[in-house]
Amino acid sequence: MNLRRVDLNLLTIFDAIMTEGSITRAAARLGMTQPALSNALTRLRRLVDDPLFVRIGNRIVPTARAEALALPVRQALDLAERALSGHPEEPDREEIRIFTLAVGDVGETIALPHVLTRLRRETGRTPRLRLRCAPPETIENELGNGAVDLAWLVFPASIQEVNSEPVMQDEFVCVVPAADADKQMTKERYLAIDHVVLGAEIAADVPGFGGWRRRRIAMEVHDYAPLATLVATAGLAATLPKRLAQHYSAIYGLAIQPLPFEMPPAIIHQAWPRALDRDSTHIRLRRAFKAAAI
Question: Which CATH class is domain 3-84?
Fold first, then answer.
């Protein structure tokens, strides 16, 4: 390919779409109109002979070709930025960097194994990651001051120092011991059986189902792993996101049943300090978690 015939601005546009996961947000980030960015994307698609991004529902998802281009394009842009800033050489800090994550049960159980596999494949080494449990009421401040580098939240970021994007939506289901698999889950049965719950569920409301707070709560825990164990060994029931339910069902032989009432889906938002928006190593980490969430 003759680079003299390539508009290198297309690489900046591609990188913005990969980072934002949205044509609209990428256009706003670059100060472009959405039609102008869409036209540029069309040119880039012709150049590489690949759609690069496809729409699934209300999201755009990168193709395999886009995933393969993402890291080298980001590295090329980083190199150009350092050269133009007067600092063309920068020590490789990836070997010693440790990222602190607060991604909760869902991120640790569902996403992290895939993230590690992907990062090993892309970089040839295992990343240094530190997991921590951060209270919901302090997590945004910890992201803002750099104490946490990446978090999965059940709400979008609300402070200026933190950026966020939705990465996962999942329905809630009920899990019961395998011995109860043949018993239909009605509203009456749901209210009659003993439940193990997360502490955060105690104060929650479910619109349209006033019985939610009248459940018979036998045990309160603070994460999903002991919750699943108690369902399997103590004959309790629990309500949790379907992907977690499928994970624990495979381990403990739990039965998964639909809830007998409508419940809003679980929506996970990935959040990070805005100071790391353009950090190539952090971008790779964010993309890996986002891909694992799909």
Answer: mainly alpha
The per-residue pLDDT of the chain, averaged, comes to: 87
- Does the domain at 99-165+267-293 match CATH 3.50.50.60? Answer given as no
CATH fold for the domain made of 172-264: D-Maltodextrin-Binding Protein; domain 2 (3.40.190)
Reduced 3-state DSSP string for 22-71 = CHHHHHHHHCCCHHHHHHHHHHHHHHHCCCCEEEECCEEEECHHHHHHHH
The DSSP H or E segment spanning 124 is: none
Q: Are 102 and 132 in contact (CB under 8 A)?
A: yes
For the chain, the structural domain boundaries read 3-84, 99-165+267-293, 172-264
Q: Tens of pLDDT along 101-140?
A: 999 999 999 999 999 998 888 877 878 899 988 888 899 9
Q: Long-range contacts made by residues 57-65, C-beta under 8 angstroms, separation at least 24?
A: 59/21, 60/17, 60/21, 60/22, 60/23, 61/294, 62/18
16's enclosing H/E stretch is helix 9-20
In this prediction the pTM is: 0.69
